[in-house]
Amino acid sequence: MGIKKYQDRIIYQVYPKSFKDANGDGIGDLRGVISKLDYLKDLGINTLWLNPIFVSPQVDNGYDVSNYYALDEKMGTLRDFDELVKNAHKLGIDVILDFVVNHTSDQHPWFKDALANPDSLYRDYYIWQKGRHDALPNNWGSFFGGSVWEKDPQDEDSYYFHLFDKRMPDLNWRNPEVRRSMIDIAKFWIDHGVDGFRLDAFIHIAKADFAQNMPSHGKKGPQVAEMFFANLPLVQTYLHEFIHNLREYKADLFILGEAASADIDLAVDYTDPKKELCDTVVTFRYFENDQSKLNPALPAFGQPLPLRIDIFKDTMVSWQKRLQGISYPTLYLNNHDLPRILTKVAKNSAHKKAAAKMLATLMYLQRGLACVYYGEEIGMEAAVLDKIEDFEDQQATAFYHEALKAGLAKEEALKMLSESHKMASRTPMQWNHAEYYGFSATKPWKYGKENGVNVADEQADPSSILNYYRQVLHLKQKPLFIEGNFVLEDTSDDLYVYTRMLNDSIAYIICNLCDKTVKYQVKGSLSDKHIVLQNGNLSLDEDNVLTLAPFSSLVFMTE
Ligand code: GLC
Ligand code: CA
């Protein structure tokens, strides 16, 4: 069993804490996932990606791992895991695990030993620097706010490096023992039947010389210094060693790399099969916000902004074209690090259904691997979290206090944050009408005001978003939508129109991106083409001019 070619994969991302709670403690778990495998099969996916499930103090919801060889007890047991893999494989679904390679938890025995004992073998598993004249080693800033340096509690003059939370110290990949340990961990999980890994934040495993400050251009405080800790050439050296070793162990291991800030040139490097690195990478560059819409009276972090459609188009085209003949990009609309896109794109509730369908049509019929984030297939949106603590984020808290000072009501500030913050896209899957949406018998670990859509309703309605997703994912399995050439038509930013072509068959995909009716002149005759997917009201006049209702979309093909 299993998928033969990586480009045939249709991935579904499950945030395990929020998918289905089987034992009623308010936190999703593996038995919950097992109980929903038939649902996933029915949707038409063939690969399941689970966000981290290892032992963790949960400072960053599992991305802070304190034991890579055991499951967080809230998730279940290793036996549950084995059952999950076995049942998934029976249904033709492969399982890939999120693997955190850049850092561990500060509660990991390696780090605890490194702190407790200056002569520890594990000291060199992490990154240490002396301070400079009573100050931090440099001005580099962490992604989670503040400096990347934290004082060694045992040694006033030493600091350890953390790119994310200070309770998540970075591993030192220069140390061959670290590299060997990570390979051993991966092999352990391959032995438990996993088919691949999503490599978390791998682009950061090499760092530049710490002597250099990040030019601050007069800005005070620590500065995020991507040029010194992202995508350095040594990343590829370490990654190659890691992946080469694992592919010798399991030849068809699937590697999906998280390369958040990678541009297309780096994507070419990271996915060129000759280099034996990742099969595919996820960039965050598809979705840029329109910074011109920022309110200068409030901090930038925390403000919901519309998408830059022009940048989106340019980025998509370059990822579609440059990877042709090399690899396949990952196609996604949402993930656990982004606010849910539907909330951003369609403001008017009357348009939500059409917009959700249009977005799936636009994204997943392009060239690449579809990766659906749990709940988007039923139209879930950013939930409104009603307490600032629910965001678990110092930058969110800072925004909140500034916003209140600037005169915003609490509810307004929380709504803005919910529409722009990753945490609001991690709320429980909405299964049915029961209390807590059938996710759990008790109040879920994260809970907000949701938009009320649910799987049961969607299953019952033939015209639902869910049933439309099934159709899109079914089409996606056709060679035309896997291997076909991609051409984006030059249109106004209200429209997204492209063709896929393979041998004699062509598909035309026409999407209205806006909340207005838009006209589009269809090229050539339509008599030899048939509609395979229709979403929303459309009409065609005698001159082949299509009138597309807000957020409608259409796919037609010649065969
Ligand atoms: C990745 C994850 C994110 C996490 C970070 C640190 O970017 O997707 O959720 O916070 O890595 O592990
Ligand atoms: Ca549970």
How does this model look, in words?
By secondary structure, the protein is of the alpha/beta class. It has 3 domains: 10-102 and 176-208 and 224-388 and 428-473, Glycosidases (TIM Barrel); 109-161, Oligo-1,6-glucosidase, domain 2 (Alpha-Beta Complex); 485-558, Golgi alpha-mannosidase II (Immunoglobulin-like, Sandwich). The chain is built from 16 helices and 23 strands. The strands form 6 sheets. An 8-stranded parallel beta sheet has the order 13-12-10-5-2-1-15-14. Strands 16-17-18-23-20 form a 5-stranded antiparallel beta sheet. A 3-stranded antiparallel beta sheet has the order 6-9-8, with no helix packed on it. A hairpin with a 2-residue loop joins strand 8 (149-152) and strand 9 (155-161). Helix 5 packs parallel to helix 7, helix 11 (352-364) runs parallel beside helix 15 and helix 12 packs antiparallel against helix 13 (410-420). It is globular, with a radius of gyration of 24 Å. The structure holds alpha-D-glucopyranose and calcium ion (CA).
Could you give a quick summary of the protein structure above?
The protein has 559 residues and is an alpha/beta fold. It contains 16 helices and 23 strands.
